[in-house]
Design a protein that fits this description.
Layout (H helix, E strand, L loop, with lengths): L15 H13 L6 H14 L13 H14 L1 H13 L5 H10 L19 E2 L7 H11 L7 H12 L1 E2 L6
Parallel strand pairs: 1-2
Helix pairs in contact: 1-3, 1-4, 2-4, 3-4, 5-6, 5-7, 6-7
Length: about 170
């Protein structure tokens, strides 16, 4: 079995502008989250994010809050877990399409992908042979022609959905 990688390694695959987009999506509207997720997100942000000049970071201007969240996102595997859960919840309606598309490409689902219970041991490395970003995007879009996600969102959601980072299988 290959060594598992921490959640924050996902930053190697994410451009800074896309990380900002992820954080902005999470901060858009807390009312869309289920109660438990919303409570966990608010508690995490209040306890883990510090915005200069604000006791409660949630009262800071969104851009200032987002900047501080992005800093934590890059380095803290525990913190990134809640941000990823919130981001993924925006696309949960497509989960079935993703599962079918990924199974069709011979992906196996990692045990860690079920909520990422251990942020320090989250991802396995190794996509099926011959599978790349364009093939994943094409497979997902063919499952749901009306999917409202960018190519980058599709790839990230695919990685998070199955728990495998791109690359060859490690021995």
């Amino acid at each position: 079995m290959s060594e598992l990688k921490p959640l924050h390694i996902i930053n190697v695959y994410i451009e800074p502008w896309f990380r900002q987009e992820i954080v902005d999506t999470v901060l858009e509207d807390f009312s869309v989250y289920p109660d438990e997720l919303r409570k966990k997100l608010v508690e995490t942000l209040k306890s883990e994010v510090k915005v200069s000049g604000f006791r409660n970071p949630l009262t800071a201007p969104k851009r200032m809050l987002a900047r501080e969240i992005e800093k934590r996102f890059e380095k803290d595997p525990h913190f990134i877990g809640i941000i990823i859960q919130a981001w993924m919840s925006h696309y949960e309606k497509y989960a079935g399409s993703f599962d079918q598309a990924l199974e069709g490409l011979n992906f196996q689902k990692s045990e860690q992908a079920k909520g990422y219970p251990d942020p320090l041991n989250a991802f396995e490395i190794g996509w099926p042979e011959g599978v790349n970003y364009p093939k994943v995007i094409e497979a997902v879009r063919s499952q749901d022609e009306n999917i409202e996600m960018t190519d980058d969102q599709i790839v990230l959601y695919s990685v998070l959905r199955n728990g495998y980072l791109p690359g060859g299988k490690e021995d």
